[in-house]
Each structure stands twice: as structure tokens, then as C-alpha cells.
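Blackboard transcription, Thursday session:
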Amino acid sequence: MVKKNDRIELNIVDMSADGSGIGKTIGQENSGMTFFVKDALVGDKIIAKVIKMKKTYGYARLMEMLESSPDRTEPKCPIHRQCGGCQIQALSYEKQLEYKQNKIRNNLMRIGGFDASQIHMDPVIGMQETYRYRNKAQFPIGRDKNGKLAAGFYAARTHVIIPVEDCYLGVPHNRKIISHILEWMERYHVEPYDEKSGTGFVRHVLIRYGFRSGQLMVCIILNGKSLPRSKELVDKLTRLKEMTSISINVNEQRNNVIMGNTVKTIWGSDYIEDWIGDVKFRISPLSFYQVNPVQTEVLYGKVLEFAQLSGKEIVWDLYCGIGTISLFLAQRAKKVYGIEIIPQAVEDARKNAEINGIGNAEFFVGEAEDVLEKLCGSDDMDVPPDKEENREWRPQVVVVDPPRKGCGEKLLAAILKVCPEKIVYVSCDSATLARDLKVLCAGGYEMVRGQGVDMFCQTVHVETVCLLSRKAQ
Ligand code: SAH
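(Written on the board underneath:)
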């Protein structure tokens, strides 16, 4: 019987949804037993050490490569295995795209209950530059194992930071900004936050870069309400000519949520700007903005293609963030209503409509499920809840773009109640997408098309857009 700490030989035959290799034991008395091994790829033959045993499978660590997979490529990042952010950096890009296509398809079949013949999907759309595509970086600040100030990531199950000189997914500016901040902390004895004791000051640094505008934003997340020696820090950071906005964010909670609710600008503008297609966007520190601007344009192009707007439609954009999809679609619709939970994001969305001269988009703050419930409260949707305003509410097209956990049941029920002709579902987690599509399809819709877009090269994540259409009664 295989047990913990045994060394075993494995053939890696498949890959799991989190990017681990799935191996089968060879040459043991119980050949064919399954093990999950991080950093192993399909086609590898390896020696691994068992780290955990379950009844019918186990977990093992890659120790030695006996034969390496033909799909391997040279990873750029020397610490990609430790970091774990890029789970499949060692896999050739072509195979990464294949892996993502299979992941979406498997989830739709296994979780969504769709038959292979019902799934119409072109291959995942990849990108040319598979590194340095991210416009956002978030670094925790702390101390490394020698007690030196550092920015990087937490070593697994510790409060120690593994320093990151340069993350290859991010822009080169990140490195300069981080080194300025660490120098400033060193010089003026500004303490990093200590997760364990809850003491110290600087928790995280958030950096955003507008790829088309060239504008930089830095937000320092503090366990405190104001920044000492802020002038000295501003002097350093404004040496970068692209610097546009420097702010602090107050987070005095003892949890692992990165940002608190309060932001104060300490230099420059409260936001940076960027473009998607012809639409200009204002982005504040607390607002969600897609991290891969090049592929965002491809993704929204698909949303537009799937929505097939003629200019007469009422569209709802649920989970609308700063109104990116809403404003993209408003150019081809009669009216777009967006709903979003973060008030600052809604403020940005309204401002974005204004600066682009888009008069047919309106935004509401709140939980999508609650706002919808109110709007759909009346059984006769054509009678607006507030008759004075006399808005036309009933949508022909509903777009949803929820966070990873997907749409709540209440929201799905509200969508089914208003019964739009089309639903365009944008998802960053194909497992919850599949779960939600099952509900919508049981409620009278059919999946017409799906399309994966790779917004997160080197990682196991993939964005998916699906078009659902109401079945004829
Ligand atoms: N469509 C936007 C944002 C998508 S991200 C874009 O492409 O840029 C998901 C958004 O949903 C985030 O802005 C998040 O703040 C918001 N959100 C999360 N839970 C929500 C809820 N219950 N109701 C409304 N918005 C929510």
C-alpha cells in the first residue's frame, strides 16, 4: 500500500481544473492509482513523493523528471513554482489554450449537464504577448525570512514574504514603484503590517497602469488613517513621468480582505483614465476594471456580437462595474441600465457615460438581485415602479458578468421572470457559469454559442461568454 513520504513513479495523463498534473502510478503493486501533482504536465514521467493520502487517490510532490512532456516550454519566471500564481507557465501557450477549451467544455458537460452536441464553441481566443499583459498589480508588504523589508507574496502557510523582483505578468513600472516605496519605508522607519500581530502600518500596494493612456496610479493600503512623511513619498513616486494618481486606502480590519472602503488622494487625480475601443473610462482605486486591456476589447467585441443589437433594445447590464460593457453596448442600444454594488464604481460609471457623451445609459447602486427584485416587483413589467419617471424597463437583452461565485438563485429567478429574448453571460469561472446555465436552460432558454477568451495567460483561468436564447413556446 502506498503511504505518505513514499517515492513513486507516475505517468501524468491529465490535468485538473487547478492546473495540477493527474498521474497514475506505474510499477507498484497497486498500479493505476491516481495522484495530483503540482507543476507536472501531461506527458511527463516523474518520480514524486507522496504528501497526503486519501482513500482512493493522493497528492504528491514532483521530485525528479524521468521523461519530460513534449508540451513543456521554458518558463520566464524563476520563482513561478513557489509563487503559484502562474500554475501553467511551463506549458506551451498552444497547449494552455487547449487546456482552457477542455476546462470550459468539461464544466459545461459535468456541472451544466449539457450534451457535447449542444455545445458550440470556437477555440479559445489567445493573445500574442503572453507576458506583461496585466494593468493591475497588488503586492503585500512585509518582511522576508531575514527580516528585511520586502514586497512579494506570502510563502505558503506563513507570514513571511517571498520577495518578487519583477512579476512578468505586470508592467515594468511596478518594479520601480515598489523599490521607491521600500526605500522610503526604510529611510523613515515606516513599519510594514504584520498579519500575525495586527500591528504595523503598510499592508499592500496597488498599482494600475492605463495601457492606452499611459497613466499610472498607486494606492497604498494602510492599517491607519493617514500617511506620515507623505511628501517624501510623493516626491519619489512622481519621478515616474506617467504618475497620475497617488492615494491611500484605510483598512484597519484584521482580515485578509485587501482594500478598505475609504480612499484619500494624496497627490494628483482621484482616478486614471483608459480607453476600451472608442470609449474612455475613468478608473478609481476601488473600482473593478478588467486586468487585461488587450483581451478585454476582444471579449467585449464578442459580447456585442452575441447581443446582436439593432438600436431598439432595452439592455440590462448586471454587475456592471464602472459601466464598461454598458457603455460599449449603449452605442448600439436604445437604453442600457447597469447595476453594481460598489458606490464608487457606479459614480465612475455615471461619469464615464457623461465624458463620452452617452445619454442612454443609467446606473443603479445595489445588489443586482435586490434591485432587480424591486424593478420586477410588479407582475406587469411594462408599468414602471415609479410611474412618474415612466421608464421602459423590460429588457430584450440581459448581460451578466458576475464575480467568480456566479449569479445568486434570486437573480436567476428575476431574469427568468422578466424573460428577455437573449441572455449574454460573461464569466471568469466556467464552473459557476455551467451551474447557472443549467438553471436558465431549465427555465426556458437554450445555449446558442459559447466562446472562451484568454485574459489570464500562464494561469488556469479563462473568461467565457455564452449566448442564450429564449426557446420558442
Ligand atoms: N462588467 C464589469 C465588471 C465585472 S466584475 C466589467 O467587465 O468591467 C463583477 C462586478 O460585480 C464587480 O464590479 C463587483 O463589484 C460587482 N458585484 C459583486 N457582487 C455584486 C452584486 N451582488 N450585485 C451587483 N454587483 C455586484
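Lecturer's comment: Residues 288-290, 319-321, 324-325, 339-342, 345, 367-368, 401-403 surround S-adenosyl-L-homocysteine (CB under 6 Å).
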